[in-house]
Write a structure and sequence with these properties.
seven-stranded mixed β-sheet; four-stranded antiparallel β-sheet; globular
Length: 115
Amino acid sequence: VQLVESGGGLVQPGGSLRLSCAASGFSFIYYSMSWGRQVPGKERELVATIASDGGSTNYLDSVKGRFTISRDNRKNTVYLQMNGLKPEDTAVYYCYVSYYGQNYWGKGTLVTVSS
């Protein structure tokens, strides 16, 4: 299983970013996918999850209405569109899949929200 995130960077408060996660090594179309984030000194938290067919999504309360998770099963890619970014969204963002009972995380991409 390999998960490779991209799209992070520095953005001003109120700005937007779109993260991408390219997945390989497993049958992507059959698995729910998630984005998580971690701030140094704090536990990693799941931000958004999307079902295998994209038919249902779940979000952390603090990002509801601002973040949108989506996926393209033809490209084995999951996305996180982040709008209305706040300084407290600053974190390393990770792609996640649970595959045969094992937790797999990518190496992450840093998102910094600052003026």
